[in-house]
Amino acid sequence: xxxxxxxxxxxxxxxxxxxxxxxxxxxxxxxxxxxxxxxxxxxxxxxxxxxxxxxxxxxxxxxxxxxxxxxxxxxxxxxxxxxxxxxxxxxxxxxxxxxxxxxxxxxxxxxxxxxxxxxxxxxxxxxxxxxxxxxxxxxxxxxxxxxxxxxxxxxxxxxxxxxxxxxxxxxxxxxxxxxxxxxxxxxxxxxxxxxxxxxxxxxxxxxxxxxxxxxxxxxxxxxxxxxxxxxxxxxxxxxxxxxxxxxxxxxxxxxxxxxxxxxxxxxxxxxxxxxxxxxxxxxxxxxxxxxxxxxxxxxxxxxxxxxxxxxxxxxxxxxxxxxxxxxxxxxxxxxxxxxxxxxxxxxxxxxxxxxxxxxxxxxxxxxxxxxxxxxxxxxxxxxxxxxxxxxxxxxxxxxxxxxxxxxxxxxxxxxxxxxxxxxxxxxxxxxxxxxxxxxxxxxxxxxxxxxxxxxxxxxxxxxxxxxxxxxxxxxxxxxxxxxxxxxxxxxxxxxxxxxxxxxxxxxxxxxxxxxxxxxxxxxxxxxxxxxxxxxxxxxxxxxxxxxxxxxxxxxxxxxxxxxxxxxxxxxxxxxxxxxxxxxxxxxxxxxxxxxxxxxxxxxxxxxxxxxxxxxxxxxxxxxxxxxxxxxxxxxxxxxxxxxxxxxxxxxxxxxxxxxxxxxxxxxxxxxxxxxxxxxxxxxxxxxxxxxxxx
Length: 694
Ligand SMILES: Nc1nc2c(c(=O)[nH]1)N[C@H]1C(S)=C(S)[C@@H](COP(=O)(O)OP(=O)(O)OC[C@H]3O[C@@H](n4cnc5c(=O)[nH]c(N)nc54)[C@H](O)[C@@H]3O)O[C@H]1N2
Ligand SMILES: Nc1nc2c(c(=O)[nH]1)N[C@H]1C(S)=C(S)[C@@H](COP(=O)(O)OP(=O)(O)OC[C@H]3O[C@@H](n4cnc5c(=O)[nH]c(N)nc54)[C@H](O)[C@@H]3O)O[C@H]1N2
Ligand code: SF4
Ligand SMILES: [Mo]
Fold this sequence. Notes:
Blueprint: E1 2-8, E2 17-23, E3 26-32, H1 45-48, H2 50-54, E4 64-66, E5 75-77, H3 80-98, E6 103-107, H4 113-122, E7 128-130, H5 132-147, E8 154-156, E9 163-167, H6 177-188, E10 192-196, H7 202-206, E11 209-211, H8 218-231, H9 237-243, E12 244-245, H10 247-254, H11 259-266, H12 270-282, E13 287-290, H13 301-314, E14 324-326, H14 375-381, E15 389-393, H15 397-400, H16 404-411, E16 416-421, H17 426-429, E17 433-436, E18 448-450, E19 456-458, H18 473-483, H19 495-503, E20 518-520, E21 543-544, H20 548-552, E22 571-577, H21 591-596, E23 601-605, H22 606-612, E24 619-623, E25 628-636, E26 643-647, H23 667-670, E27 688-693
The structure holds ligand MGD (2 copies), iron/sulfur cluster (SF4) and molybdenum atom.
């Protein structure tokens, strides 16, 4: 029997809408949901490899309980009742002795996040964190400092842009399918693309203008751009007068930062900086300076992100067609959002978070997400209190937090590590219990509230029955809760029940998703009125160049520029990123993707390689203060001589994932755990390495 199911991809967390063809209970084909604008039936390579994950025998096939040392790979298969009882009993003991706050749960923000938050709130723990700060924490803080909204509440109108500017936003390799399609459409319609990166990525090859910037110096470029834009009055004066708070302060601040000064700092010729400022201003307000994700990742990241967003404000492109926009929720059109379990009443929590977010120690990161890279320090120093149990739910602290050795040492102090995963990730392998989740093709998930220019809701729908003895994450957490006396916060017996409960009062039913895979609250795109109707949520109700958020917490809005140091002689700045074939640390063992890209290589500049006697494809040793490893060199002119580059996500240590075990080198193992203490993001690119012939 043949059927088609609309669902959501989860080969990465972009969650592209998909159409899945099923024949006699087997998935035979996956494509982008053709009903969704921007998808046009397409998928990225990872999405297309979904069946390779589904049918992989190297997935976790049943609950597993550790019998040997942590990480030794000695497991016994367990039934669900056994594994859940084991976790429930241990957890009860820990909560009784140390309190609910000694339990931490970390996850990649996902559809069931309201379930995990509920799980912790029910036991009185404030210690939920998401991956967010690892990904774009400083972008989030920068957005709140300027607009009063998080980055998650802001989007880019790719399809209508006339000029897009990307600071290492490697959009054609670090993919979201709709964004790629919409930007391609704009480029076909004549839009310009400027791309800035110390490395010639695929996106660089498609750009009209490419600058090989000195790594870590984008902020200098931006201050010089602002200098030119203000001095030549290239900005949208009407918009800026109406909406910007602190223009005079910015003007005074950028006065010394001339294009000539920036040329020395960045390596980009002054006349090109001036010419670019004049060119981009001609297309305002349909221009977008992308605020980025992981591009430049340094201890001062918050100020780089703010400077990018301020350039948008100067162009009048915040809440403009072809620029940036604020995402509109159902409330905007009189609709109601899906319910979340977390909206229930819980016992009051009096203790601070483990990462001290929201206290004077670390005031600005978003407490809705927390800061994962503080976890190793919190555990090791029992500061602010002892942490005893860690739940990893679709999150991998060993490879996603810099300095694997430090994290591992911290984890060794825990009494309980439980991982809900689909793969033998390194963290699953290092856990006490693995609770295997069904893959996205095998499970129905919670509602996705998709805010945007048109508010909508999407649903991940089970396409086929679970192939192995696996369950949905939201059911697993409920079943643990039942064993520790908090089951009453989870009023559902199945995922369908939970989804129906979420939809109560919205006017939509589960069946409404069958026709197209989503439901829409209205047909029109909503832009607020640029004269008077933009609802900034800052205290001044304006875009705060001079930021009350920063200044009230004791930080400057305009700190003097401090250069990122160039590497000492013989060393390199370590830079990392993604390619189109892998998702972070989780797809390296997926058979099809592993075949296409089975290990990472080290990009090194031709001149520097010659000095070191390294030829293309030689095996080299790369070492930092934290770790060393061997990797093949890719000798090329396509990278700035100050840095070397490798793909994130290789060098797995879990033997259960046989194809990816020990292949390539892990960036997280090499990196130091240092971060932007204002914005919250890790400074992934502030580690220096030595490279020599092996
Ligand atoms: N295929 C694929 N797509 C993905 C993901 C994935 O894992 N795989 N993940 C998704 C997620 S969660 C994210 S956060 C995004 C990430 O999206 P991006 O942030 O666009 O992706 P990265 O690969 O981290 O890009 C880093 C780029 O920044 C450059 N860079 C390094 N230092 C500097 C610098 O000082 N200045 C400038 N201008 N550039 C610099 C690097 O050379 C690299 O090309 O991708 C999303 N899409
Ligand atoms: N060193 C270093 N660290 C980084 C980055 C970097 O470039 N370098 N990038 C950062 C960025 S931008 C991000 S977004 C984060 C991402 O960090 P993570 O969220 O930790 O990484 P992912 O690869 O997305 O997947 C995490 C885990 O989810 C599991 N998983 C996949 N699908 C499912 C599922 O359906 N159910 C369950 N239960 N588990 C599943 C995977 O097997 C994996 O163990 O990492 C950050 N950390
Ligand atoms: S970008 Fe690719 S992997 Fe990620 S959700 Fe979309 S199709 Fe799937
Ligand atoms: Mo990310």
